[in-house]
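Supplementary Methods S3. Input chains for the assembly prediction are listed below.
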Amino acid sequence: MESMTFVLFGSTGDLAKRKIFPALYNLYAEQKMPQKISIIAVGRKEMSDSDLQAYVKRSLQTFSRSIIDDETSLADFLNAFRYSQFDATKMEDYQSLRDLVEQREKELHIPENRMFYLSVGPEFFDLIALNIKESGLGSTKGWKRLIIEKPFGHDLESARLLNANLTKAFEEEEIYRIDHYLGKPMVQNLEALEFANPVLQTLWNNQHIANVQITASETVGVEERAGYYDKSGALRDMFQNHMLQMLMMTAMRKPNRISATDIRNEKRKVMESLRPLTKEEVGLHIIRGQYTSGKMGGEPVKSYLEEPGINPTSMNDTFIAAELWIDNSFWSGVPFYIRTGKRMKEKSTRIVIEFKDSSQDLYKDQHEQVAPNLLIIEINPNENVTLQLNSKHPMTGEVEPIKVNFTSNNKDVPEAYERLIYDAFRGDSTFFAHWNEVELAWEWVQPIIDAFSEGSVPLAHYESGSYGPKEADQLLQNTGFKWWLDE
Ligand code: BG6
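Predicted structure tokens for the full assembly:
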């Protein structure tokens, strides 16, 4: 791996403390870091280099998955860090940052490979990217890369505008858009499950699959993010990005090669084949919900409208369920159901694939007992792959479902940020969101945004601690299906 400079904007923020510093440390501990690295932490606060190093150390002690017992190697790691105080609007601050970057490059004898990680509010993305260019920070003799994380815009138009600005300073190949769901081991594993198993690959189409269900339910409410969430809702916060990324990873066809370009091409094709919704059709295929008060783990919790900072007349969605159709020869006729919501009964991200039932005639008399074959891929918090088959009970002789299960017991697996930063170090963009995917996802979602803002889709309510509004169950009943595992 090539030596480089890693410039972290927003280094005193929450994400840096909880995720980025621990990820860097764990990569260092596992020798997955460039041999020589200069890490420049940039932030608004006044801080010396040693203040910063102490701050990073505290964050590792609190949030890192691995235990720091070797003081020498920890000191070695911390020694790579320098601090630069910075105001994103002041050009002179970019110049002093550039001076520091260059000075460290000379001290460490490293090439001008520069990675800029913007862990800042999205309103600063284009400003900082453009000023990186303007100040000469981005004019390197080596490579340069930009890492940003959602939200990439608030709707189709703002996303396009943001991208137009970013691409004035960075080429598309230089932009690494984090969708942390793509860093989850089980999401990354979807590709291997499907393409390394001829058995599954043969079945992965509309001849054998009846429907696909993708759920990301959360138990938390809006937490301390009322200002952001009340404007965003589940549609923008989860659906447009994480949920559609999981859909792409599930429905993509076999790529020519396992490479970033080929996989992204296949993902793009999924989005291009997604049947568009008109504003008028939104109400037929999309359910929007909002949580009311209820009980979570036996404790009463407030309704969304009573949460601090939420507009008490808000019509914001905290739950979305959708029925989607992919109009290509592999998937036509197979509904994909997606749902996500806050304050639901359990924290679970999973994909359930229901296979078609061809045993109906043979087991007519006992058909009550013959359950469909299911492939259940649990992504979070448990990582499991389960295949539900049917088998005869040895005592009663009745056909009943059995489960063949693989559980990943390895608790010390790298976290999403670790995997993604490692990939970015190596220049592997497979598990980052390409602009094509982001744009196509916004295009698909835009009529839903429009219909919601016109108020033409009723807001369904669901009790906190439930599986969402009953309307989401009805969505599946139209095709004769039900959500699996809601029990
Ligand atoms: C984030 C959303 O992107 O993902 C949050 O902004 C959500 O609202 C979170 O809680 C869920 O991530 P995970 O990894 O806990 O499923």
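The longest strand covers residues 286-296. DSSP finds 14 helices and 16 strands in the chain.
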